[in-house]
Amino acid sequence: MSGSNKAYEKGSMGRLKHVVEAQQFDRESMADIFTVACEMEQVVQHYGSNLLNRRVMATLFYEPSTRTRLSFESAMKRLGGDVVTTESAQEFSSAAKGETLEDTIRIVAGYSDVIVLRHFESGASKRAAAVSPVPIINAGDGPGQHPTQALLDIYTIEREIGRLDGISIAMVGDLANGRTVRSLCYLLSKFEDLHIYFVSPPVVRMGDDIKGYLTRHGIRFEEADDLTEVASKVDVIYQTRIQRERFGDRIRDYEEARGLYIIDAGVLKVMREHAIIMHPLPRVDEIVARDVDSDPRAAYFRQAHNGLYVRMALLRMLLIEGTA
Ligand code: CP
After folding, report:
1. Which of 32, 155, 205, 258 gives 20 to 30 Å between its CA and that of 10?
2. What are the backbone dihedrals phi and psi of residue 153, each rounded to the nearest 5 degrees, phi first?
């Protein structure tokens, strides 16, 4: 990104301008966001807020979403702001008439103070930020990144485990197409003495770009096949869905990958007492609900709820404080 559209301007105030990729955050900025997120829990539970009164957030979603869109919209409303939205933007916005993403962003920026964008193309948020006079928040760009998910994931690990340094984490499932695990790797690389296990079917292994990044940042990782063995060693199991929508006509690859790694009673039995199971959701069949949901180590619903507080914090910091 160039010139004034840099996502994160390093200055004495460390101004947060856009949220487009996880690499723009460091430990200090994450700590600042999490401090505000804790305050936001109090706002929701006790005080309420009108801090973003008269501010408008636009949500432009070209791919389906439950958690990200609704938690951002709830976050804006809980801070007293307003929301304009188009879900299924590919079908219901003027993209259906051939309008470019850049033109759509230029127009929507005139109607709103911040734009939350989910798009099917990797890099779409960077393109949007390059033309937008208002902050762009990447709410997932195809198989690229999902930085706000990664922030809420780190927030969840800190709350549940109490630390990030020195933890071991298993990332399980569709690691080739999973934007959440990609963004999470970028954020984890800011911490010390981590050990990451990648447990995935061969057709959806973690990409070399992420492995190279982890190597350059001194993060230990290994690929493993035996989920039960790995589950007995780690602090966090981060399960993901095999993403049917990313396989196109490669049905055979999809069938080969799905159902290979499942969290069930057998995995629970070997997990450490303090360990947690996370999942960005939605899940399909990779967690056996009747076995796992009632176990206190199942953290995925708490994880999703944390998204509200982290997204409230980001909106406040982008629209009011301008710092992170
Ligand atoms: N975790 C996540 O991005 O969920 P949604 O697709 O429902 O937004």
Report:
1. 155
2. -65, -45
